[in-house]
Write a structure and sequence with these properties.
There is one protein chain. The chain has 19 helices and no strands. By secondary structure, it is mostly helical. The chain is elongated.
Amino acid sequence: MKTNHFKKYKSLLRFAFLVVAAFVSSCNKTVDEPTLGASNPSSMDEGAGSWKPYILSSAGEIEVVAPKAVTSDYYKTEITKLKGVVESITPIQKEQVNYWAAGAVFRWNEIGRELAARYNTPPASTPDGKYPLPDAANPLADPKFPFANPPYTARALAYLSVAQYDALVSAWNYKFKYNRKSPSKNDQSIKALLPVTDLPSYPSEDAVVAEASVVILKAMFPGEVPYLEAKLAEHKNSRMLAGMNVESDILAGSDLGKAVAAKVMARAKADGMGAANNQAKTAEMIANAKAIGTTEPWVSQEFPPRPPMLPTYGSVQTWNFDKATLVKLRPVPPPAMGSAEFKKNMDELLDIAQNQTREQAKIASFWSDGVGSYTPPGHWHRRAANLCRENNFSEVRTARTLALLGTTLQDAGIACWDVKYYYYFPRPNQVSKKIKTSVGLPNFPSYTSGHSTFSGAAAELLAYVFPAEKQKLDAMAAEASLSRIYGLIHYRFDCEVGLAVGHKVGEYAVARAKADGAQ
């Protein structure tokens, strides 16, 4: 009898443990990334040194001196040192080697997205009803700098990807100019821990990407300098621990990456982002919107009223087209309030508000990409990075893909914010209190939808790079757009027009891709 009770007790304990474990797992808010093996490029892209950079005038603009000959005493000493490093590797260091082996561009893009999610928190109001601005000079004070909203994240990932791409185009130029083989090809006694190809090792592509990435991310997330420096050291060390690079490979790549990133940051400092939150312009914008037909301009629905988010972001410098084109991309006005078309759109939202299906709620939640997420630009960067791995892209081709995507997503954000504050159109919940959003309350005008514009641009560009994925990508973009209707954030015309404008924005990135020499 006692034995039966004991068995029942043990069974209850096991059941309780499983319930608790399931509960803890369900409450975990971290994003679980799949375990990844080493990247396995299907091509070395030997000609990438001739591809068109974004910021550099040419792949040879920044000089990289020739390496020491593999027959020199200097190189032989480096080889001896490398053997000692490889032979003394610890289990923890092996884990670090495997982590970075997934791809330098892949990992640093992932880090950039994670930082964006960490800093995607709008400032809270003070007791006197004010909203303090984050301070770049004191980034860890409350509120933390930056507030990584969708336009900020789009810009941060654009500069990150452009720096990686330009640095790798330059690195490829020198790799094949000097053609120094990997250490294990020069000394077969070195047992590399990762697959070794015929890609020249000088300068190190991993060091190039790591240094370029850290320069950009330090500027975008200045409160994370210690974390970024630790990841930088770990990444560079992993290449020697794996037997993939001697020290001079790493040093040459580091110097090149830093030099390229400095040039990229020069553009960032002059692109107009510093004036993107000019609240003094809003009165003029509202007056203009009224003059062109907006009878009830958007106002913040928060209490206390929050100043509009980045009202002059539409004036930030674009990447793939000029300011005149930006104006041409501006769509026709939204339907007039009180018109039959406007009423039709409002009736659809009122019906969803009363009869939302589980599937609609699921789609709205999946694409919400709100506070605490890496926003729609990060969502699309993750999809692109995964596609690059699935298609076995080289480091330089992965960087090209993400630079094309990053620039078109920032251009999409600029185009969308230009439209939002040009028409200053009210959101549905401002028009009817019966409409209550289920996925947050964006603090900027309604027309057009940011999700739709970002998604249309991303799908257009990625369908060009991955034509076999076009149907899936278009379906993703359409669902992302619809999600804002299901979440009661936007009218249907916000979404349909935003999606169309996004596709047009993406066409400019496609035009650049067709002319960059990477075909």
